[in-house]
Amino acid sequence: MHFVSVIDVERDLLKANRKIAHKNRALLDRYNVVAFDFMGAIGSGKTLLIEKLIERLKDRYNIGCIAGDVIAKYDGERFKKHGVEVVPLNTGKECHLDAHLVSHALEDLNLEDLDLLFIENVGNLICPTDFDLGAHKRVVVVSVTEGEDTVRKHPMIFKTVDLTVINKIDVAEAVEVDPLKMKRDAQDINDTMEVVLTSLKTNEGLDRVVDFIVKSKEGGRG
Ligand SMILES: Nc1nc2c(ncn2[C@@H]2O[C@H](COP(=O)(O)OP(=O)(O)O)[C@@H](O)[C@H]2O)c(=O)[nH]1
Ligand SMILES: [Mg+2]
Question: Beta strands 163-167 and 137-143: pairing type?
Answer without folding.
Answer: parallel
